């Protein structure tokens, strides 16, 4: 009997531990990003996109903390969540007396938790963790997201054309630019599929979207002969100084 009770107790403890580990879930996980950079393009960034979902049955006042495990000197890191895109100097969204902007997630709700790395023309690799906790118990780490980045140097014209299409800066507060060849038009839709903006595009052009409401959008990159080349997620967001 004692053995049965002990087994049941251990099972219950293990189940509770598993549930606690799954209270906040990253998707995808881990987050791995690799791309070519042009050493003369100081504005280029690598972005690790992730969504965090509250899988518990209680609301969570989410606190995140950026931990730089390894990163080349000269690189900069910026974190974006549902509320804001923070400056590169901000390592957490909740530091009492300094910054207190928790992400409140009710059961089943989600937030983006995107990490933007700016190599500043320097090739290399980086490993960055995002630790999650509740602001009411910040020392209890509920979940950790692992982000890895690899910035490769463009050494030839062939490499340059292997760069995938991307819109930058992303998030943006005003203008967007496009990296990639062969795009004739950029069409921006809201998440309901309604067209919000359409731009004819030539290489090197910038396009103003500062008058759009803050939020998530989809940007279709279109070639007049080949059709839609790619659709990318775009975030219009106020930038926190």
TrEMBL record:
InterPro entries: Secre_tail. This is T9SS type A sorting domain-containing protein. It comes from the Bacteria. NCBIfam families: Por_Secre_tail. Residues 167-230 form the Secretion system C-terminal sorting domain. Residues 1-22 form the signal peptide. Keywords: Signal. It comes from Phaeodactylibacter luteus.
């Amino acid at each position: 009997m004692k053995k049965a009770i002990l087994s049941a107790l251990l099972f219950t403890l293990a189940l509770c531990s598993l549930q606690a580990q799954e209270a906040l879930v990253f998707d995808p996980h881990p987050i791995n990003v690799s791309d070519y950079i042009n050493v003369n393009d100081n504005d280029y960034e690598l972005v690790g996109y992730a969504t965090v979902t509250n899988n518990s049955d209680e609301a969570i006042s989410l606190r995140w903390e950026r931990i730089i495990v390894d990163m080349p000197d000269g690189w900069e890191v910026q974190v974006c969540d549902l509320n804001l895109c923070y400056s590169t100097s901000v390592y957490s969204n909740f530091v009492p007396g300094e910054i207190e902007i928790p992400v409140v997630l009710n059961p089943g709700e989600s937030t983006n938790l995107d990490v933007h790395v700016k190599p500043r023309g320097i090739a290399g690799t980086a490993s960055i963790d995002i630790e999650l906790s509740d602001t009411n118990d910040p020392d209890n780490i509920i979940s950790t997201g692992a982000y890895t980045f690899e910035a490769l140097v463009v050494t030839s014209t062939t490499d340059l054309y292997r760069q995938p299409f991307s819109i930058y800066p992303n998030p943006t507060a005003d203008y967007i630019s496009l990296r990639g060849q062969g795009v004739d038009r950029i069409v921006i839709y809201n998440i309901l599929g309604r067209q919000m903006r359409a731009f004819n595009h030539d290489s090197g052009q910038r396009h103003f979207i500062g008058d759009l409401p803050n939020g998530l959008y989809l940007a279709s990159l279109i070639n007049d002969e080949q059709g839609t080349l790619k659709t990318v997620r775009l975030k219009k967001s106020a930038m926190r100084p």
